[in-house]
Design goal:
This protein is mainly beta. The chain is built from 1 helix and 10 strands, in the order ββββββββββα. It is globular, with a radius of gyration of 13 Å.
């Protein structure tokens, strides 16, 4: 079963929706309340995140990066990463390759 187009809570103050998925590429929108965190984790997928609005601090393998609306950031495979929203109503567009089967089939 696929959950494309379904909004779900990821962590407190964080909700996400898979917008589309193809053979090896997946796109997801993620909304954050101010101070909400995407907890640190890692996965074998490459990821790019584009800041649609607001601002964030990304933590990738122990380093911090500021990202604001219009900026993007690449997250390598297996890198330990997390993110914190610095403003209310911040949003990211995340792209993964290969697709995140773990998120797609919940």
């Amino acid at each position: 079963m696929s959950n494309i187009g379904v909004w779900e809570t990821a962590e407190p103050g964080v909700k996400r929706c898979i917008l589309n998925a193809a053979d090896s590429l997946m796109m997801m929108e993620v909304h954050f309340a101010k101070g909400a965190e995407g907890y640190e984790h890692s996965h074998p997928h490459e990821q790019m995140s584009y800041c649609l609005r607001g601002s964030f601090i990304f933590r990738i393998d122990g380093k911090e990066y500021a990202v604001v609306a219009g900026n993007s950031i690449a997250i390598p495979r297996n890198a330990k990463h997390g993110v914190t929203a610095l403003e209310e109503d911040s949003a990211l567009l995340d792209v993964f390759t290969p697709i995140r089967e773990d998120l797609l089939k919940r």
